[in-house]
Write a structure and sequence with these properties.
The protein has 189 residues and is α+β, with helices and mostly antiparallel strands. Helix content is 23%, strand content 28%. It is built from four helices and eight strands. The chain is globular and about 40 Å long. 28% of the residues are buried.
Length: 189
């Protein structure tokens, strides 16, 4: 378990705490905010699974991105502005799957302690339980966020989807300020 936590934390950042003021310094499986997704995946892979989740079409999702080179996560989900031919990354979610919620929540608490030790000038929310923000989705999420001065954020979450196997996923999420604002204010309206 300690090795898994170390791998997750190391995959989040390769910087010293004094440099941890810019979320673009972080990466998940080699993918960082602000870079072209084409650096890591082909256009065919990006467009292969493109769900239509948002009512507002300003952003698109490259879903279920996988690679044999991934070291920590089982798959990635990446957001980019619709129509952007460079597929500049605005949001990244790395997923690890669990059989039960308690194991996932234990892992979230461990990651929280580690990340909290890296930062002095980010706003941290407590771990909260809530319904998914998509009104058509009935899943339950336990989540928390670390918000940077720029408005960008790192999110940690355990989502419970009772009809999936395995039913629980751990998400480590990086979001640009613009994409976080879009999700909160426009995505489902």
């Amino acid at each position: 378990m300690k090795k898994l936590l170390a791998i997750i934390i190391l995959s989040l950042c390769f910087i010293t705490p004094s440099q941890a003021d810019d979320i673009r310094d972080f990466e998940i499986e080699g993918v960082s905010l602000g870079e072209s997704l084409l650096n890591s995946f082909s256009e065919k892979a990006i467009l292969e699974d493109k769900p239509n989740w948002f009512k507002n079409k300003d952003y698109s999702i490259a879903n279920n991105l996988k690679s044999k080179n991934f070291e920590t996560y089982e798959l990635l989900q990446v957001a980019y502005k619709t129509g952007d031919k460079k597929y500049v990354v605005e949001g990244i979610e790395g997923f690890i799957f669990f059989s039960n919620l308690d194991d996932c929540l234990d892992k979230i608490r461990e990651i929280d302690r580690e990340i909290s030790g890296f930062f002095t000038n980010v706003k941290r929310s407590p771990l909260r339980k809530h319904k998914h923000n998509n009104p058509d989705n009935s899943s339950i999420i336990h989540s928390m966020n670390f918000r940077f001065k720029s408005g960008a954020s790192i999110g940690l979450g355990c989502s419970l989807f009772k009809d999936l196997d395995p039913p629980v996923d751990l998400r480590v999420i990086l979001r640009s300020n613009d994409y976080a604002y879009f999700l909160k204010n426009y995505a489902y309206k």
